[in-house]
Amino acid sequence: MSIAVVGKILWVLGVVAWYVIRYPFERRAKRVRVVSHRRSPTEKIGLASALLGLAIAPGFYVATGMPEAADYPARAWAVAVGAVLFATAMWVFRRTHKELGRNWSITLEIRDQHQLICSGPYAFVRHPMYTSFLLMALGQAFLLSNWVVGLAGLTGFAILFFLRVDKEERMMLEIFGPQYRAYMDRTRRIIPYLY
């Protein structure tokens, strides 16, 4: 089995793990009443971009090998780095969902009895879910030896992040006021101690 095939298999396993982690939280979230939301066309564009870059384009590549012209030689060290990044992404993703519990939502929503979560990964960054997506995108770039697919994940993540994060923080400031402002002062957005 070639290194490139190993990378593809590991990417598929990572996406399956992502879905297995997300599914029960998505089901539970439907049972908690939404009291406020900030859904918008730009949010839909961000979510669609992330889906395209982190799932559809790489899934198409894994299934068909296209665009083959953008392939480069797979390296064992790169696949190993990609596997570690993707596994770390899934760990952060799981911890984030666990900490949020009934507060979790795929869109910008405030749920009934919403609380500000500052524990677990939220003690280090305000948006660890985005941290996990960034790690997934980086992992994908190392696992799949194709320039287009590698850049698609990073581009999809960047579009989602930059279209949503400011709106998300404004919403949290409206809901939690000085408590969220103090939280912003002591944490970074997605990379502990840096950004």
Automatic annotation (TrEMBL):
TM ranges: 6-25, 45-64, 76-93, 133-163
A Pfam short name: ICMT
One CC-aspect GO term: membrane
Record keywords: Membrane, Methyltransferase, Transferase, Transmembrane, Transmembrane helix
Documented EC number(s): 2.1.1.100
Membrane topology per record: Multi-pass membrane protein
InterPro entries: ICMT_MeTrfase, Isoprenylcys_mtase
GO biological process terms on file: methylation
Chief location of this protein within or outside the cell: membrane
Record carries keyword Transmembrane helix: yes
MF-aspect GO terms: protein C-terminal S-isoprenylcysteine carboxyl O-methyltransferase activity
Intracellular or extracellular location(s): Membrane
Protein name: Isoprenylcysteine carboxylmethyltransferase family protein
